[in-house]
Amino acid sequence: MGINEHIKCTQFPCKDANHRSYAIPDIALDPEKISIIMISEATPPNLNDYYYSRGSPLFQRTTVQAFRDAGANVASIQDVIKMGVYLTTAIKCGKTGYAIQTSTIKECSRILEEELSQFPNVRVFMLMGDVAIKAINFIAKRAGERRVIPAGPTYKIRKGKYYFQGRRAFPSYLQAGPSFFIEKVKRKTIAEDIAAALTVVLQSKPNNIS
To answer: Domain-by-domain residue ranges, the chain?
Structure first.
């Protein structure tokens, strides 16, 4: 199934979003085989850099490298998907500035909420950066639940155990984009968080022998 066949934005109300770079994943996959959902910030300004674009887009390169850093034997985004990982963004349009307004995150979290509901067997949500964390907290709040991830710098809170809809949620740093190759400390942290998420999935499988 193609996720963009079921999920879409029709009104584009956000004023600080580049609607020309609007994208919802159009990859065909079996949602029941997805065990990890990795949510990053926003779509790239140039959609040629998006996760599911052809060629060697930036979001693919940095994400594949992040999984390789975590010890995963992957060479392409298709390999990552075969591991049961679905990649998406909290904001479905590109940024127009450095920061994204809270109102935009709240509005787009409604689309994200509908998107996440398509995957019944998720074991882990990876929240790659503050925007993804805020979006998940908005979804939880609308459901009458307490915030999933507490306030505070990621390096202080990332070791805690958090749950969203009964599944583990890992707050981490943004893995999609050029800063991934520059910020070496964050890159190491991302690898640790991915490895931890993969371990949770492995341990949740039936007949797992540890």
So the answer is: 10-203
